[in-house]
Specification:
Shape: elongated
Oligomer: single chain
Number of strands: 14
Number of helices: 1
Structural class: mainly beta
Length: 220
């Protein structure tokens, strides 16, 4: 998934322009709530020839709700093999929660060979009456790159340098705004993000969650 692509653009766009939902009043104020979210198992761009998203929920409506998708297995011959693909996004009660998961991953792109037994990501954005918060996690098990076992630190944005690019593990990109009568939060988590300069851009297990809340005086 390109970080200047559609999902990333939706993450950074002002969420309150997308649409609003009136919540219960508190202390003489009404709160307008907008949700945004999306999850996908894989986004693949290789040599500009293969450019596709796999098991993508699509964008969550601004009014919230729930979207999900599942697939038993997927095979792009010579490039990517995935099993038990699952992605979901849900927006309600001032919170958006998105998650993606896949097992038995094999990726062979632009001379980089990656295997993992489990890849999951989760992103949460929450907006209260006073502030907005985000959180994100990922789980990566039995990761190897070109036959070499990779130790997972658990820290966000762990980067493995490659001769032809880089592999980012537990990539997290967040934005939080807290102001008078307005707060918003966005979180994007990619379990794996392979960048091969000019040749490949591949994300496995991607979750985006966003929410915005605007408070206004109740009309008499």
């Amino acid at each position: 998934m390109r970080l200047d692509g559609p999902l990333f653009s939706r993450m950074l766009a002002p969420a309150f322009l997308a649409g609003c939902l009136l919540s219960q009043p508190r202390d003489g104020m009404a709160q307008q709530i907008t949700y945004s979210g999306e999850a996908l198992v894989a986004s693949v761009d290789v040599l500009g020839v293969i450019n596709t998203s796999l098991s993508d929920t699509g964008p969550l409506p601004a009014s919230g709700g729930s979207l999900s998708t599942q697939l038993a297995n997927l095979d792009l011959p010579g490039l990517l093999t995935l099993q038990l693909l699952s992605a979901s996004t849900n927006g309600e009660n001032n919170q958006t929660n998105s998650q993606a998961s896949v097992v038995n991953v094999t990726l062979n792109a632009a001379g980089v060979y990656i295997q993992a037994s489990v890849l999951t990501s989760n992103a949460v954005a929450f907006c209260s009456s006073s502030n907005a918060t985000v959180s994100g996690t990922s789980n990566i098990a039995a990761l190897t790159v070109n036959g070499r076992s990779i130790k997972i630190t658990g820290s966000p944005n762990q980067t493995i340098p490659l001769l032809v690019g880089s592999l980012i593990i537990n990539e997290q990109i967040s934005s939080v705004v807290n102001a008078v009568n307005f707060s918003s939060a966005d979180m994007l988590v990619n379990a794996l993000h392979l960048k091969v300069n000019g040749l490949a851009n591949v994300v496995i297990s991607s979750s985006h969650a966003g929410v915005s809340c605007t408070s206004a005086p109740l009309l008499e």
